[in-house]
Amino acid sequence: MKKGTPIATIMTKNVITLKASDNLERAEHLFRKHHIRHIPVVSGSKIIGMLSYTDLLRISFADAVYEDEEEVDSMVYNMFSLEQVMAKNLVSVSSDTIVKDVAEILSKKEFHALPVVDDGELVGMVTTTDLINFLLQQYED
Q: Would strands 38-43 and 18-19 be described as parallel, antiparallel, or unpaired?
């Protein structure tokens, strides 16, 4: 196993983001279009929150009851702003944090993605999937 590997080597660098002024329908569109489960919310290049697909599912509970899901989603999504739903107390890491340390953070917390922030700016994102793929690569070498 490659010890001391910085997270910058496995993180996603071209991160899909939202602005606080975006609505939840836009968020759902981005989740589906890009097949992702976490989207940082930014103000300029500074991260101010994180929205997970699970956050959206929590507020669209009516999906299981009504047949016209899109109409229900629109109604529910219009009841909340992105800022009301996103997580605000974020844990982040820098791009030189080693993979082992990131794995320890994610194994002890109840979330599956960490923003990578250098000098106050969002530079990437690392997920549990990134860590699993890194681990699998170690067996290929």
A: parallel
Element (H, E) at 137: helix 128-140
Distance, in Å, from the CA atom of 59 to the CA atom of 72, rounded to the nearest integer, reads 11
> In the predicted model, what is the mean pLDDT of residues 89-99?
96
In the chain, pLDDT over 70 holds for what percent of residues? 88
**pTM for this entry:** 0.85
Using the Cα atoms of residue 12, residue 13, residue 18 and residue 19 in order, give the sign of their dihedral. positive
Q: Token digits for 57?
A: 């599912």
Number of domains in the chain: 1
Does residue 2 sit within a domain? no
Q: How far apart are CA 87 and CA 106, in angstroms?
A: 16
Tell whether 108 is covered by a domain.
Answer: yes
Q: Report the CATH number that the domain containing residue 70 is assigned in CATH.
A: 3.10.580.10
